[in-house]
Amino acid sequence: MTQQTDSLIFDLDGTLWDATESVARAWQAARKQVDFDIREITQEDIRSVAGMQHNLIYDKFFPDLDDAQKKQLMEISGREEMAHLKKYGGTLFTGMRETLDYLHDKYKLFIVSNCQDGYIEAFYEFHQLSHLFQDHECSGRTGNPKGENLKDVIERNNLRNPVYIGDTKGDYEASIKADVPFVYAAYGFGQVPDFTYKAASPAELKQLF
Question: Which residues contact residue 40 at a Cβ distance below 8 angstroms, ignoring those fewer than 6 apart?
C-alpha cells in the first residue's frame, strides 16, 4: 500500500465482525410481534444482504407486504435488533482486535456502513472499541447510500488518501463512487468484481498497511 495512505475506512458487517446470529434472533423475536405472516429469516439470509442499504432489505425479503406493514416491521425489527446486539453482540473476526490496535497507531480509522442508526454505536459498546475510531456514518442516519456517506466522511475529516475496506460488491461500488482504493476483505460474506488489494484475514491487513 502506498506510504501516502492517511486513513482507513471500514465496512462493519462481514469486515469487522459477524453479528448474524444476534440479528437472526432479533428477526425471530420481531416475527412474533406482527399480526401478519412473514417468513423466517436465517443467518444465511442476513449474510446474503450484507452491505445492502438497511431500508432496502425489507423490499428484498418481503416484497408482498404493503408500505404500512413494512414500516411496522422495520420499527419492530429495528428495536429488537438493537436490543439483541446490546445483549449478545457479534463476534470479531479472528485477529481483528489486534489488527485494529496496530492500525490505530499508524492511521486514522473510520466506519461507513449501510446499517441502521445506532448499530455502529452498539458495535463500539459491545467490544469497547470506540476509542479506536474517529468518526462513522450509516445509511440509517442519513438515508443516503454508502458511496455518499463515504464521501461525506472523507470530506468532513479532510482525508487526503483514504482506503475503503469491505467484503461485498456494494462496498466495491461505494469505493468507486467515492474514488478511493478498495481492499477486499476476502474472509467476509461476499464476492466482489474487482479490488485494489485483497486480505484473506485480518492479520493480512497488518501486512498490507
Answer: 27, 28, 31
Can you give the length of the chain in residues?
209
Q: How far apart are CA 18 and CA 78, in angstroms?
A: 17
Residue found under cell 442519513: 142
Report the alpha-carbon angle 107-112-116, nearest 5. Answer: 145
DSSP 41: -
Q: Could you tell me which residues come within 8 angstroms of residue 187 by beta carbon, excluding any fewer than 6 positions away?
A: 93, 167, 199, 200, 201, 202
pLDDT 10s digits, 25-46: 999 999 999 999 999 999 999 9
Confidence grade of residue 50 (pLDDT, cut at 50, 70, 90): confident
CA distances from 208 to 40, 79, 159, 163, 197 (A): 40, 38, 19, 11, 8
Look at residues 139, 125, 37, 132 and name the one whose alpha carbon lies nearest to residue 78: 139
